[in-house]
Amino acid sequence: MNSLKVIFDRDTWQEIFGSISKNKTRTIITVIGVLWGIFIYIALSGAAKGLDNGFERQFENIAMNSMFVWAQRTSIPYDGFKTGRNITLKLTDIDYIRQRIPEVEFIAPRNVRGVFGGAVPLVVRKNKSSNYNVYGDFPEYTKIATKKIYEGGRFINEDDIKYARKVCVIGERTQTELFEKDENPIGQYIRVDNIYFQVIGVHKFVPGGGFESDGDIFIPFETFRKIYNTGDRVQWFTIAAYDDADVVAVEKEIKATLKKIHRVSPKDERAFGGFNLGEIFNKIVGFSKGMTLLSLIVGIATIIAGVIGIGNILLISVKERTKELGVRRALGATPSEVRNQIILESVFLTMIAGILGIILGAFVLFGINLATQDLTDFPYTNPTVPIKFIMGALFIMVFLGTLIGLIPAQRAVSIKPIDALREE
Fold this sequence. Notes:
This protein has 13 helices and 14 strands. It is α+β, with helices and mostly antiparallel strands. The two termini are 35 Å apart.
Protein backbone atom coordinates (compact mmCIF):
# COMPACT_ATOMS: atom_id res chain seq x y z
CA MET A 1 0.00 0.00 0.00
CA ASN A 2 2.87 2.40 0.86
CA SER A 3 4.39 1.73 -2.56
CA LEU A 4 1.13 2.61 -4.33
CA LYS A 5 0.77 5.70 -2.17
CA VAL A 6 4.22 6.88 -3.21
CA ILE A 7 3.55 6.17 -6.90
CA PHE A 8 0.30 8.16 -7.00
CA ASP A 9 1.41 10.91 -4.62
CA ARG A 10 1.70 14.28 -6.36
CA ASP A 11 4.41 15.52 -4.00
CA THR A 12 6.54 12.48 -4.83
CA TRP A 13 6.50 13.27 -8.55
CA GLN A 14 7.21 16.95 -7.88
CA GLU A 15 10.30 15.94 -5.96
CA ILE A 16 11.37 13.51 -8.70
CA PHE A 17 11.03 16.14 -11.45
CA GLY A 18 12.69 18.69 -9.23
CA SER A 19 15.65 16.37 -8.72
CA ILE A 20 15.90 15.67 -12.47
CA SER A 21 15.70 19.38 -13.36
CA LYS A 22 18.65 20.16 -11.08
CA ASN A 23 20.88 17.80 -13.09
CA LYS A 24 19.44 18.14 -16.59
CA THR A 25 22.62 17.68 -18.63
CA ARG A 26 23.90 14.80 -16.53
CA THR A 27 20.52 13.08 -16.57
CA ILE A 28 20.05 13.47 -20.33
CA ILE A 29 23.51 12.02 -21.07
CA THR A 30 22.87 9.03 -18.82
CA VAL A 31 19.38 8.43 -20.22
CA ILE A 32 20.87 8.42 -23.72
CA GLY A 33 23.06 5.50 -22.63
CA VAL A 34 20.01 3.38 -21.78
CA LEU A 35 18.14 4.65 -24.85
CA TRP A 36 21.05 3.66 -27.09
CA GLY A 37 21.10 0.16 -25.62
CA ILE A 38 17.43 -0.59 -26.33
CA PHE A 39 17.73 1.11 -29.74
CA ILE A 40 20.63 -1.17 -30.71
CA TYR A 41 18.65 -4.20 -29.57
CA ILE A 42 15.52 -3.20 -31.53
CA ALA A 43 17.43 -2.19 -34.68
CA LEU A 44 19.67 -5.28 -34.85
CA SER A 45 16.89 -7.72 -33.92
CA GLY A 46 14.58 -6.18 -36.51
CA ALA A 47 17.31 -6.23 -39.15
CA ALA A 48 17.98 -9.92 -38.48
CA LYS A 49 14.26 -10.68 -38.69
CA GLY A 50 14.02 -8.79 -41.98
CA LEU A 51 16.82 -10.92 -43.41
CA ASP A 52 15.12 -14.07 -42.15
CA ASN A 53 11.78 -12.98 -43.67
CA GLY A 54 13.50 -12.14 -46.95
CA PHE A 55 15.02 -15.57 -47.37
CA GLU A 56 11.76 -17.25 -46.34
CA ARG A 57 10.09 -15.28 -49.13
CA GLN A 58 12.77 -16.38 -51.58
CA PHE A 59 12.27 -20.02 -50.61
CA GLU A 60 8.49 -19.94 -50.11
CA ASN A 61 7.85 -21.85 -53.33
CA ILE A 62 10.38 -24.59 -52.76
CA ALA A 63 10.94 -26.94 -49.83
CA MET A 64 13.54 -25.52 -47.46
CA ASN A 65 15.11 -28.96 -47.03
CA SER A 66 15.41 -29.66 -50.75
CA MET A 67 18.37 -30.32 -53.04
CA PHE A 68 19.29 -31.01 -56.65
CA VAL A 69 21.55 -33.90 -57.67
CA TRP A 70 22.89 -34.58 -61.17
CA ALA A 71 25.49 -36.80 -62.84
CA GLN A 72 28.83 -35.62 -64.23
CA ARG A 73 32.07 -37.36 -65.23
CA THR A 74 34.22 -39.64 -63.11
CA SER A 75 37.58 -38.31 -61.95
CA ILE A 76 38.97 -41.58 -60.54
CA PRO A 77 39.34 -44.94 -62.41
CA TYR A 78 37.32 -47.66 -60.70
CA ASP A 79 36.16 -51.24 -61.25
CA GLY A 80 37.73 -51.47 -64.70
CA PHE A 81 36.39 -48.11 -65.91
CA LYS A 82 38.69 -45.27 -66.94
CA THR A 83 38.68 -41.69 -65.75
CA GLY A 84 36.29 -39.33 -67.53
CA ARG A 85 33.39 -41.76 -67.92
CA ASN A 86 30.01 -40.03 -68.37
CA ILE A 87 27.46 -41.03 -65.75
CA THR A 88 23.74 -41.04 -66.59
CA LEU A 89 21.02 -41.04 -63.95
CA LYS A 90 18.19 -43.55 -64.48
CA LEU A 91 14.56 -43.77 -63.40
CA THR A 92 15.42 -47.04 -61.67
CA ASP A 93 17.73 -45.11 -59.32
CA ILE A 94 14.66 -43.68 -57.58
CA ASP A 95 13.47 -46.96 -56.02
CA TYR A 96 17.00 -47.79 -54.92
CA ILE A 97 17.36 -44.39 -53.22
CA ARG A 98 13.98 -44.71 -51.49
CA GLN A 99 14.88 -48.16 -50.13
CA ARG A 100 18.31 -47.14 -48.88
CA ILE A 101 17.59 -43.63 -47.58
CA PRO A 102 14.38 -43.38 -45.51
CA GLU A 103 15.04 -39.67 -44.81
CA VAL A 104 14.02 -38.84 -48.39
CA GLU A 105 10.39 -37.68 -48.45
CA PHE A 106 9.99 -36.75 -52.12
CA ILE A 107 12.11 -37.37 -55.21
CA ALA A 108 11.18 -36.05 -58.65
CA PRO A 109 13.19 -36.90 -61.78
CA ARG A 110 13.37 -34.06 -64.30
CA ASN A 111 14.40 -33.61 -67.90
CA VAL A 112 14.55 -30.41 -69.93
CA ARG A 113 15.11 -29.16 -73.45
CA GLY A 114 16.56 -25.69 -73.90
CA VAL A 115 18.59 -25.35 -70.70
CA PHE A 116 22.30 -26.12 -70.22
CA GLY A 117 23.18 -25.08 -73.76
CA GLY A 118 20.74 -27.41 -75.56
CA ALA A 119 18.52 -26.48 -78.49
CA VAL A 120 15.55 -24.43 -77.33
CA PRO A 121 12.27 -25.95 -78.65
CA LEU A 122 10.24 -23.90 -81.09
CA VAL A 123 6.66 -23.34 -79.95
CA VAL A 124 4.04 -22.27 -82.47
CA ARG A 125 0.46 -21.09 -82.06
CA LYS A 126 -1.33 -19.96 -85.26
CA ASN A 127 0.86 -17.23 -86.76
CA LYS A 128 2.87 -16.63 -83.60
CA SER A 129 5.95 -18.50 -82.51
CA SER A 130 8.87 -18.29 -80.11
CA ASN A 131 11.39 -20.48 -78.28
CA TYR A 132 10.76 -21.73 -74.75
CA ASN A 133 12.33 -24.24 -72.39
CA VAL A 134 10.33 -27.49 -72.11
CA TYR A 135 10.46 -29.58 -68.92
CA GLY A 136 9.39 -33.19 -68.49
CA ASP A 137 7.95 -33.54 -64.99
CA PHE A 138 6.06 -35.77 -62.58
CA PRO A 139 3.20 -34.44 -60.37
CA GLU A 140 5.41 -35.08 -57.32
CA TYR A 141 7.60 -32.16 -58.34
CA THR A 142 4.97 -29.71 -57.05
CA LYS A 143 5.34 -31.23 -53.56
CA ILE A 144 8.91 -29.97 -53.57
CA ALA A 145 8.57 -26.76 -55.60
CA THR A 146 5.13 -25.19 -55.56
CA LYS A 147 3.68 -24.13 -58.89
CA LYS A 148 1.10 -21.36 -58.71
CA ILE A 149 -1.45 -22.11 -61.41
CA TYR A 150 -3.89 -19.43 -62.48
CA GLU A 151 -7.59 -20.07 -61.84
CA GLY A 152 -9.21 -22.54 -64.21
CA GLY A 153 -6.04 -24.51 -64.89
CA ARG A 154 -4.08 -27.32 -63.27
CA PHE A 155 -0.65 -28.92 -63.22
CA ILE A 156 0.28 -32.35 -64.59
CA ASN A 157 -1.45 -35.26 -62.80
CA GLU A 158 -0.95 -39.03 -62.56
CA ASP A 159 -3.28 -39.81 -65.47
CA ASP A 160 -1.23 -37.51 -67.69
CA ILE A 161 1.81 -39.62 -66.81
CA LYS A 162 0.00 -42.96 -67.11
CA TYR A 163 -1.41 -42.27 -70.58
CA ALA A 164 1.48 -40.08 -71.76
CA ARG A 165 -0.98 -37.34 -72.65
CA LYS A 166 0.07 -34.47 -74.88
CA VAL A 167 -0.88 -31.76 -72.43
CA CYS A 168 1.17 -28.84 -71.17
CA VAL A 169 1.33 -26.06 -68.60
CA ILE A 170 2.62 -22.83 -70.10
CA GLY A 171 4.21 -19.77 -68.50
CA GLU A 172 2.52 -16.40 -68.15
CA ARG A 173 4.97 -14.88 -70.65
CA THR A 174 4.19 -17.70 -73.10
CA GLN A 175 0.51 -16.86 -72.80
CA THR A 176 1.18 -13.17 -73.43
CA GLU A 177 3.34 -13.84 -76.49
CA LEU A 178 1.27 -16.60 -78.17
CA PHE A 179 -2.32 -15.70 -77.26
CA GLU A 180 -4.49 -12.62 -77.64
CA LYS A 181 -4.93 -10.33 -74.66
CA ASP A 182 -8.44 -11.48 -73.64
CA GLU A 183 -8.11 -15.04 -74.96
CA ASN A 184 -8.33 -17.97 -72.52
CA PRO A 185 -5.50 -20.41 -73.36
CA ILE A 186 -7.01 -23.31 -71.36
CA GLY A 187 -8.13 -26.01 -73.80
CA GLN A 188 -6.32 -24.40 -76.74
CA TYR A 189 -3.53 -26.13 -78.66
CA ILE A 190 0.08 -25.17 -79.30
CA ARG A 191 2.78 -26.93 -81.32
CA VAL A 192 5.97 -27.89 -79.48
CA ASP A 193 8.61 -29.09 -81.94
CA ASN A 194 5.79 -29.81 -84.46
CA ILE A 195 3.74 -31.86 -81.96
CA TYR A 196 0.37 -30.54 -80.77
CA PHE A 197 -0.19 -30.10 -77.04
CA GLN A 198 -3.34 -29.01 -75.27
CA VAL A 199 -2.88 -26.25 -72.69
CA ILE A 200 -4.21 -27.34 -69.28
CA GLY A 201 -2.83 -24.52 -67.15
CA VAL A 202 -0.83 -21.30 -66.92
CA HIS A 203 1.77 -21.01 -64.16
CA LYS A 204 2.66 -17.78 -62.44
CA PHE A 205 6.39 -17.19 -62.35
CA VAL A 206 7.90 -16.60 -58.92
CA PRO A 207 11.65 -15.86 -58.55
CA GLY A 208 13.67 -18.30 -56.48
CA GLY A 209 12.90 -21.52 -58.37
CA GLY A 210 16.41 -22.08 -59.70
CA PHE A 211 16.95 -21.64 -63.46
CA GLU A 212 13.27 -21.63 -64.41
CA SER A 213 11.70 -18.62 -66.13
CA ASP A 214 8.29 -17.09 -66.81
CA GLY A 215 8.11 -18.69 -70.27
CA ASP A 216 8.73 -22.31 -69.32
CA ILE A 217 6.47 -25.09 -70.55
CA PHE A 218 5.86 -28.24 -68.49
CA ILE A 219 4.75 -31.55 -70.05
CA PRO A 220 4.33 -35.06 -68.56
CA PHE A 221 7.63 -36.88 -68.05
CA GLU A 222 6.39 -39.93 -69.99
CA THR A 223 5.39 -37.75 -72.94
CA PHE A 224 8.77 -36.03 -72.87
CA ARG A 225 10.68 -39.32 -72.96
CA LYS A 226 8.67 -40.59 -75.93
CA ILE A 227 8.96 -37.39 -77.94
CA TYR A 228 12.68 -36.87 -77.34
CA ASN A 229 13.57 -40.55 -77.04
CA THR A 230 15.26 -40.20 -73.65
CA GLY A 231 14.36 -43.69 -72.43
CA ASP A 232 15.08 -44.10 -68.73
CA ARG A 233 17.62 -41.28 -68.71
CA VAL A 234 17.18 -38.50 -66.16
CA GLN A 235 19.07 -35.21 -66.20
CA TRP A 236 18.71 -34.51 -62.50
CA PHE A 237 16.74 -35.35 -59.38
CA THR A 238 14.92 -32.76 -57.30
CA ILE A 239 14.79 -34.19 -53.78
CA ALA A 240 13.21 -33.11 -50.49
CA ALA A 241 14.13 -34.65 -47.15
CA TYR A 242 11.86 -34.82 -44.10
CA ASP A 243 11.81 -31.74 -41.86
CA ASP A 244 13.78 -33.37 -39.05
CA ALA A 245 16.46 -34.83 -41.35
CA ASP A 246 20.03 -33.57 -41.67
CA VAL A 247 19.99 -32.37 -45.29
CA VAL A 248 23.78 -32.37 -45.56
CA ALA A 249 23.99 -35.98 -44.42
CA VAL A 250 21.10 -36.95 -46.73
CA GLU A 251 22.90 -35.45 -49.73
CA LYS A 252 26.04 -37.42 -48.89
CA GLU A 253 24.01 -40.64 -48.55
CA ILE A 254 22.30 -40.03 -51.89
CA LYS A 255 25.60 -39.50 -53.69
CA ALA A 256 27.13 -42.55 -51.97
CA THR A 257 24.13 -44.63 -53.05
CA LEU A 258 24.38 -43.39 -56.64
CA LYS A 259 28.09 -44.26 -56.66
CA LYS A 260 27.23 -47.85 -55.74
CA ILE A 261 24.55 -48.07 -58.42
CA HIS A 262 26.73 -46.66 -61.19
CA ARG A 263 29.99 -48.32 -60.08
CA VAL A 264 31.84 -45.15 -59.19
CA SER A 265 34.71 -44.92 -56.71
CA PRO A 266 33.50 -43.94 -53.21
CA LYS A 267 36.33 -41.38 -53.17
CA ASP A 268 35.23 -39.70 -56.41
CA GLU A 269 33.82 -36.30 -55.47
CA ARG A 270 33.27 -35.11 -59.05
CA ALA A 271 31.11 -37.88 -60.47
CA PHE A 272 27.90 -36.37 -59.05
CA GLY A 273 27.08 -32.72 -58.60
CA GLY A 274 24.65 -31.24 -56.15
CA PHE A 275 23.10 -28.03 -54.92
CA ASN A 276 21.72 -28.18 -51.40
CA LEU A 277 19.11 -25.51 -50.70
CA GLY A 278 18.52 -26.96 -47.23
CA GLU A 279 22.15 -26.42 -46.26
CA ILE A 280 22.08 -22.83 -47.53
CA PHE A 281 18.83 -22.11 -45.71
CA ASN A 282 20.17 -23.59 -42.45
CA LYS A 283 23.22 -21.32 -42.71
CA ILE A 284 20.95 -18.33 -43.25
CA VAL A 285 18.80 -19.28 -40.25
CA GLY A 286 21.97 -19.75 -38.17
CA PHE A 287 23.25 -16.33 -39.23
CA SER A 288 19.90 -14.75 -38.40
CA LYS A 289 19.87 -16.38 -34.95
CA GLY A 290 23.44 -15.24 -34.41
CA MET A 291 22.46 -11.67 -35.30
CA THR A 292 19.54 -11.82 -32.87
CA LEU A 293 21.76 -13.17 -30.10
CA LEU A 294 24.39 -10.53 -30.83
CA SER A 295 21.79 -7.78 -30.69
CA LEU A 296 20.55 -9.16 -27.36
CA ILE A 297 24.05 -9.29 -25.85
CA VAL A 298 25.11 -5.86 -27.12
CA GLY A 299 21.77 -4.31 -26.23
CA ILE A 300 21.66 -5.70 -22.68
CA ALA A 301 25.31 -4.78 -22.09
CA THR A 302 24.63 -1.20 -23.20
CA ILE A 303 21.44 -1.06 -21.15
CA ILE A 304 23.28 -2.27 -18.05
CA ALA A 305 25.96 0.37 -18.57
CA GLY A 306 23.27 3.04 -18.91
CA VAL A 307 21.35 1.81 -15.87
CA ILE A 308 24.56 1.86 -13.81
CA GLY A 309 24.95 5.48 -14.92
CA ILE A 310 21.46 6.22 -13.62
CA GLY A 311 22.43 4.62 -10.32
CA ASN A 312 25.47 6.88 -10.11
CA ILE A 313 23.33 9.95 -10.79
CA LEU A 314 20.96 8.97 -8.02
CA LEU A 315 23.83 8.38 -5.61
CA ILE A 316 25.11 11.88 -6.33
CA SER A 317 21.56 13.21 -6.06
CA VAL A 318 21.09 11.54 -2.67
CA LYS A 319 24.33 13.07 -1.42
CA GLU A 320 23.29 16.51 -2.65
CA ARG A 321 19.89 16.12 -1.02
CA THR A 322 21.19 14.90 2.35
CA LYS A 323 19.78 17.85 4.27
CA GLU A 324 16.43 17.66 2.45
CA LEU A 325 16.13 13.94 3.24
CA GLY A 326 17.00 14.64 6.86
CA VAL A 327 14.19 17.21 7.11
CA ARG A 328 11.73 14.73 5.57
CA ARG A 329 12.77 12.04 8.03
CA ALA A 330 12.47 14.50 10.93
CA LEU A 331 8.96 15.43 9.78
CA GLY A 332 7.86 11.79 9.91
CA ALA A 333 8.74 10.27 6.53
CA THR A 334 9.29 6.53 6.98
CA PRO A 335 12.37 4.73 5.58
CA SER A 336 10.13 2.82 3.14
CA GLU A 337 8.70 6.07 1.74
CA VAL A 338 12.17 7.47 1.13
CA ARG A 339 13.38 4.19 -0.36
CA ASN A 340 10.36 3.88 -2.65
CA GLN A 341 10.79 7.43 -3.93
CA ILE A 342 14.43 6.84 -4.95
CA ILE A 343 13.58 3.49 -6.58
CA LEU A 344 10.63 5.10 -8.41
CA GLU A 345 12.94 7.79 -9.76
CA SER A 346 15.35 5.11 -11.01
CA VAL A 347 12.58 3.08 -12.69
CA PHE A 348 11.03 6.22 -14.18
CA LEU A 349 14.29 7.31 -15.85
CA THR A 350 14.93 3.78 -17.11
CA MET A 351 11.41 3.44 -18.53
CA ILE A 352 11.51 6.82 -20.27
CA ALA A 353 14.86 5.93 -21.85
CA GLY A 354 13.54 2.50 -22.87
CA ILE A 355 10.33 3.82 -24.45
CA LEU A 356 12.23 6.50 -26.39
CA GLY A 357 14.72 3.86 -27.58
CA ILE A 358 11.89 1.58 -28.73
CA ILE A 359 10.18 4.44 -30.61
CA LEU A 360 13.46 5.45 -32.27
CA GLY A 361 14.20 1.83 -33.22
CA ALA A 362 10.68 1.41 -34.62
CA PHE A 363 11.11 4.51 -36.81
CA VAL A 364 14.42 3.21 -38.15
CA LEU A 365 12.89 -0.21 -38.97
CA PHE A 366 9.93 1.53 -40.60
CA GLY A 367 12.32 3.50 -42.80
CA ILE A 368 14.26 0.35 -43.73
CA ASN A 369 11.00 -1.42 -44.58
CA LEU A 370 9.91 1.42 -46.87
CA ALA A 371 13.28 1.35 -48.63
CA THR A 372 13.29 -2.43 -49.18
CA GLN A 373 9.62 -3.42 -49.63
CA ASP A 374 9.77 -3.23 -53.44
CA LEU A 375 13.13 -4.98 -53.82
CA THR A 376 11.94 -8.42 -54.94
CA ASP A 377 15.44 -9.47 -56.01
CA PHE A 378 16.93 -8.62 -52.61
CA PRO A 379 16.23 -11.16 -49.82
CA TYR A 380 15.00 -8.67 -47.24
CA THR A 381 11.49 -7.76 -46.14
CA ASN A 382 9.41 -6.60 -43.17
CA PRO A 383 12.07 -6.02 -40.47
CA THR A 384 10.11 -6.33 -37.23
CA VAL A 385 10.62 -7.28 -33.60
CA PRO A 386 7.98 -9.49 -31.92
CA ILE A 387 5.98 -7.72 -29.20
CA LYS A 388 7.00 -10.37 -26.66
CA PHE A 389 10.67 -9.47 -27.22
CA ILE A 390 9.93 -5.77 -26.72
CA MET A 391 7.94 -6.46 -23.56
CA GLY A 392 10.72 -8.73 -22.35
CA ALA A 393 13.26 -5.96 -22.90
CA LEU A 394 11.08 -3.48 -20.99
CA PHE A 395 10.68 -5.98 -18.14
CA ILE A 396 14.46 -6.40 -17.95
CA MET A 397 14.86 -2.62 -17.89
CA VAL A 398 12.33 -2.21 -15.07
CA PHE A 399 14.04 -4.99 -13.14
CA LEU A 400 17.48 -3.46 -13.63
CA GLY A 401 16.14 0.01 -12.81
CA THR A 402 14.65 -1.31 -9.57
CA LEU A 403 17.81 -3.22 -8.73
CA ILE A 404 20.16 -0.32 -9.35
CA GLY A 405 17.79 2.04 -7.51
CA LEU A 406 18.15 -0.02 -4.33
CA ILE A 407 21.73 1.18 -3.90
CA PRO A 408 21.06 4.94 -3.67
CA ALA A 409 17.76 4.17 -1.91
CA GLN A 410 19.57 2.26 0.83
CA ARG A 411 22.10 5.08 1.03
CA ALA A 412 19.24 7.56 1.54
CA VAL A 413 17.58 5.41 4.22
CA SER A 414 20.86 4.93 6.10
CA ILE A 415 21.17 8.69 6.66
CA LYS A 416 20.21 9.58 10.23
CA PRO A 417 17.97 12.65 10.52
CA ILE A 418 20.19 14.34 13.11
CA ASP A 419 23.31 13.83 10.99
CA ALA A 420 21.54 15.05 7.87
CA LEU A 421 20.40 18.25 9.59
CA ARG A 422 24.00 18.97 10.59
CA GLU A 423 25.17 18.53 6.97
CA GLU A 424 26.44 21.75 5.40
